[in-house]
Amino acid sequence: MSTLRRLGTALLAPVLAIVVALAISALVIVLIGENPLSAVEVMLDFGDSPSQQTQAMVVILNRAVPLFLAGLAVSVAFRMGLFNIGVEGQYRLATILSAAAGAAVALPAPLHVLLIIVVAMLVGAFWAGIVAVLKVTRGVSEVISSIMLNFIALGLASFLLTGPLRGSEPGASIITTADIPESGWFPGLNGVFGALGLAEPRSELYGFLLVAAVAGIVIAVLVKRTRFGFDLRATGMSPSAATASGVDARGMVIKTMLISGAVAGLIGLPDLLGSSHHYGTEFTTGLGFLGIAVALLGRNSPVGIALGALLFGFLDRAAIPLQFEGIPASVVTIIQGTIVLAVVVANEIARRITRRQAERGGSQPASPTTGDGSTDGGQGSGGPPPDPGAAVGTGTGPGVRSGAADGTRGGQQ
Amino acid sequence: MTESAPLAVELRGITKRFPGVVANSDIQLRVRRGEVHAIVGENGAGKSTLMKTLYGMHRPDEGEILVDGRAVTFRSPADAIDAGIGMVHQHFMLADNFTVLENVVLGSEPTRGGRLDRAEARRRIREISDAYALGLDPDTLVEELGVGDRQRVEIAKVLYRGARTLILDEPTAVLVPQEVDELFGNLAELKREGLTVIFISHKLDEVRKVADSITVIRRGTTVGTADPRTTTAKQLAELMVGAELPVAQKRDSTVRETAVLQLRGVRVAAPGGRPAVDDVSLTVREGEVVGIAGVEGNGQAELVDAIMGLRPLSSGVVLLGADDITAWSTRHRREQGLGFIPEDRHRQGMLLEAPLWENRILGHQTRPPSVKGAFIDRKGARADTERIMREYDVRAPGPDTAAMALSGGNQQKLIVGREMSARPRLLIAAHPTRGVDVGAQSVIWELLKDARAEGMGIVLVSADLDELIGLSDTLHVMLRGRLVATLDPARLTPEELGTHMTGAASTAGAA
User: Closest Cα of chain B to A245: distance in Å?
Assistant: First the structure.
């Protein structure tokens, strides 16, 4: 009963947010003179032939894998109240350096892939580590420094790409690093479709999906089941209480940012190891920022982030078919943007509801003694108005932290 | 003020249920116009629920509210304000960077031509301030005001909105003794002007001093009324708890020879010159309770932080047993036998949003029964939380309840139980019974005494003089970061201790 209710409140916010976002997007489509229903039809239409349909699924999954990793990277920091906006720079730098490292060596297949993964994680962790060191030693807000480091990372990546690490012919319109030899490619998963009796899609399903799944499980276990994770979540909920309990706040900032950065380093690898095999001017960008949205949508729980990544992947796939129907692809961006805004609002509302329930002892199952005809209206509809007097007395920290605290509760079974 | 005049506020048979609990049942309250009416009860007895009902923050499931003899229904605090009922919250709700004037008018600004009419606002605030002797200057910034002044701004806010009945929720909790006296002076002014004051408290001496009549709440219902002139504090307290009262009386000395904690020349720097802790040396032996008395803000909090390793020393040495722990981290100190009951349990002692079993782990992340190796032992932590709840009488539905759902007393009992369960060599108890009801207070005192008898060393920092005198074996007085006197609690009255705390006994003219 109480588990069901908790699950209900955990799901309430994202579902509400998606509904609101879809309503707003429909309004936008109507305003530009198109039919929102036909847009929905296009988005849900995966094609006629079986191979087109599996192809659509592969496109969605291949997009969702890097988004999931990005969301995971952001969420780890979120959980302890750190806002790692630098994921974008961390993964771009990690991808180009690991691509160059992969192209520069020849190793047996598993080792070659492993080397690329390790280099990417180290670079991501290093770049995020700068943020942590600045915060711990100089008190620089991680929000500011990670944004600034994004610019530096992007500039640095451009410099490396056009200069020392360029592998493409001089004068080529698309500049790339040298290709990684085949021993450094991650095998695809298209065999699965055959095994399931489905049609073979045109593109390869990224094998990196498995690595992402492992990363998700490792992070979930780390955060929820280990002492380290406890310290991390405690710091996110109350830095002062965590410090008094013996958590070394500085050390936690550094460790958490290193983990967040290491996961961020993986973001570019599904594309790099699965299809492009080099980093170049056409490499996927913006995943780090989308990761923030996905983490918010998933309320920082790995399962939620996976669902959020799939939703974003689904929306992104629709961008091209929508254009065929004369609907601008930016509708997808509008939907994603409104989802994020709506999620922030909905999370806050859900947080207040859970908090109010908890303060009233709402986590206690209703005892039969009070069942004497009193309606259960006190719980849902009959709640007091959001009076500042009620909220301020026990209020915790503002803004950014609430998202992190939210996920903590939402994720617990 | 005749008996036949309609009552300012009357509550008849108010019942308020929350899922699983009845917070208030059949409350009867009769407040006459122009009196100070105190509502007393243990924490968690239902005082706050009742006041929220009266202030329109939620609606009762049963019962009637009558104001000046008329039945009313409050949908929101705005309705209550319209009916002339105002609330002064325990936690101030003022914008620091606004002036007194701006804070007072915020939300109901007098306007002229669409702009804030400062002259009119100033005139009315002066009027209120003069009429009730609040002594407010409308143009001071709130951030420059002390706690007492801020409270008077809150009162002015309520009066400005035309309240005839003021609810004061634990108004003295944040005040020092002199400010309490000033507040009582203000209340007398309000009374003289015919206003009604509902005063919520669990400090019985204050209640007896200021109230004209008293209603006692126990376990969610009104158990009786009392006349403060004829009722002793002890009788009141017994009405509140429904049982005979404990006293903070210690048994025979259990002090042993071995020193468990020694501070030598400990100094903690503070921003702006004078160190917060200045050359403090003290020794705590096994089985000894060392009390630290002092007016708050004289370095006690910094001293506690220094012992816990939460604040760096600028000089000095801290020894735990024979080990020099000066350079140890907080976690290392805790692992080696330092227990901590923090002064502010919400800030330092609990994760309010986390369930109780996670709070059981807090501070003990490296030790069984809550952890196994690098992993959290959820089952072990839950089981041990249940044990603590049983043994330390923590009243909560279960280990999965969020900590914020508990009353202050139950939260504190959980913290005490958690710290005791680790069997520390030395326990730092900072205001262990602050904001805790009489029932929980006596439980906590008993626990401290038992621990002392078993050989635990205890540093007791408190503002409760009876607690200090009753529990301590040795009593140090802290003033401006220094230990200025060492007293024998066996031959000490609270009055003498008070004199030492203000510095009047040793240094002439010190405040």
Answer: 4
Domains of chain B by residue range = 9-241, 246-337+424-511, 347-423
CA distances from B296 to B149, B176, B358, B488, B506 (A): 18, 8, 31, 21, 18
Task: Judge whether A203 is closer than 8 Å to chain B, CB to CB.
Answer: no
User: CB of A409 within 8 Å of any CB in chain B?
Assistant: yes
**Cα nearest neighbour of B397 on chain A:** A364
Q: What are the CB-based long-range contacts (under 8 Å, 24+) for B221-224?
A: B221/B24, B221/B25, B221/B26, B221/B27, B221/B46, B222/B26, B222/B27, B222/B28, B222/B29
Touching B: A residues 245-304, CB under 8 Å: 245-248
Residue A222 to chain B, least CA–CA distance (Å): 9
What CATH number labels B246-337+424-511? 3.40.50.300
**Considering only CA atoms, which of B245, B247, B242 is closest in space to residue B223?**
B242
pTM above 0.80, yes or no: no
In terms of residue numbers, what domain contains A161?
2-361+395-411
Closest C-alpha to A269, from A384, A186, A350: A186
Average pLDDT, chain A: 80
Residue A390 is assigned to a structural domain of this protein: no
Q: How far is A69 from chain B (nearest CA, A)?
A: 24
Comparing alpha-carbon positions, the chain A residue that sits nearest to B331 is A246
B345: nearest CA partner in chain A: A241
Query: CATH code at A244?
Result: 1.10.3470
Residue contact A228–B374, C-beta within 8 A: yes
Cβ neighbours of residue A110 under 8 Å, at least 6 residues apart?
none
What is the structure's pLDDT at A72?
95
Q: Residue A155 pLDDT more than 90?
A: yes
Asked if A364 reaches chain B (Cβ–Cβ under 8 Å), the answer is: yes
Task: Determine the Cα–Cα distance for residues B138 and B101; give it in Å rounded to an integer.
Answer: 5
**B392 close to B418: Cβ distance less than 8 angstroms:** no
Q: Do domains B9-241 and B246-337+424-511 have the same CATH topology?
A: yes
Query: Looking at residues A40-59, what average pLDDT do you find?
Result: 84
Class at the top of the CATH hierarchy for domain B9-241: alpha beta
Task: Say if A227 falls within a structural domain.
Answer: yes
How many angstroms separate the CA atoms of B57 and B62, rounded?
Answer: 15
Q: CB–CB of A365 and B350 under 8 A?
A: no
Which pLDDT band holds residue A365 (cuts at 50, 70, 90)?
very low
CB contact under 8 A, B376 and A384: no
**Per the CB < 8 Å rule, is A360 touching B19?**
yes
User: Between residues 120 and 179 of chain A, which touch chain B (CB distance below 8 Å)?
Assistant: none
Q: Which two tokens stand for residue A290?
A: 């989308």
Provide the pLDDT confidence category of residue B5 given band limits of 50, 70 and 90: low
The verdict on residue A374 lying in a domain is: no
How many domains does chain A divide into?
1
Pick from B57, B363, B404: CB nearest A389: B57
Q: Which of A108-122, A384-398, B148-162, B328-342 has the lowest mean pLDDT?
A: A384-398
Report the pLDDT value the prediction gives residue B1, as an integer from 0 to 100. Answer: 44
Tens of pLDDT, residue by residue over B440-453, are 788 888 888 888 88
CB contact under 8 A, A246 and B17: no
| pLDDT for the residue A7 | 65
Instruction: Give SS3 for A191.
Output: helix
Nearest-neighbour CA in chain B from A391: distance (Å): 11
Closest partner CB to A362 (pick from B19, B61, B351) = B19
Q: Is B298 helix (H, G, I), strand (E, B) or coil?
A: coil
| Distance in angstroms between the alpha carbons of the first and the last residue of chain A | 12
Residues 374-403 of A with CB under 8 A from B: 374, 376, 378-379, 382-385, 387-390, 392-394, 396
> Exposed, middle or buried: residue B439 (CB in 10 Å: 0-12, 13-18, 19+)?
buried
